[in-house]
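User: My instructor asked us to take a sequence, write out its structure as tokens, and then describe one feature of it. I'm not sure where to start. Here is the sequence I was given:
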Amino acid sequence: MKLVHKILDLHDELYSYRKNNQSIGLVPTMGALHAGHASLVSRSLQENAVTVVSIFVNPTQFNDKNDLAKYPRTLDSDCALLESLCNNDNQLIAFAPSVEEMYPEEDTRHFSYPPTDEVMEGKFRPGHFNGVCQIVSKLFMAVEPTRAYFGEKDYQQIAVIKRMVEDQQYPLEICPCPIIREADGLALSSRNALLSPSEHDIALNISRVLRESLDYAKIHSLKETCKWTINNINKVEGLEVQYYEIVDAKTLASLENWNDADGIVGCITVYCGASPVRLIDNIRYK
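Assistant: Let's start with the prediction itself. The structure tokens for your sequence are:
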């Protein structure tokens, strides 16, 4: 594995692959890597001649300065994990730029993809998806990947990025990858590192209630299922639902009934603990 910090150095590393028309995979991350990230990297290594894993905590997608400040930064352990994934067949590059490298000047570009970026995270974190599109577009331009890999835990993010790729006509494939969970069901997240052991146990109720909602939904309306899910998570001391919405799996538009869309997903954000950690998850109904 090679570690680079500059875009020009990254271009140099990728030059021969582009010259020989070999495929390039990109796994964008904000570091604090875990088994979920490893699954994305492993898939990219299988499908491409070279894989770039970006490690960059992007300031423009945080609308809460405290959230940005406490986001875990673990470059040494991230590189150790990536080293463990290397094989003799394909190459792996870790790209860990500084803020100044990615934003030498203020990025004033504005991306708008309603309704996909206006609901849920878009509603509660104004400017978040504009920041996501800014950094992901910068990475697309720096790496020029054949394929880019994203975890489905960030379901809405994938939907927004797909809209951006279509809008900007980037010549690449977006590859969604399944949520990786701990053995107890908790969706893997870099933010899990901020949970105490007791808070971790409390957080398990998020995935538990989501799973139970699948059975509840079989004999109840969409709105009843949504309300039941929120109430049952809020009953757990230490958990507070910020939102839970059951939406069209493609457009993320709100739905009234189970037969209003061919694909339906429920997306949730929950605050966990006394110094609350913001956790997201989702579940597919059909």
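For the description part of your assignment, you could build on this observation: Residues 2-177 form a domain with the Rossmann fold fold (CATH 3.40.50.620). Try explaining in your own words what that tells you about the chain.
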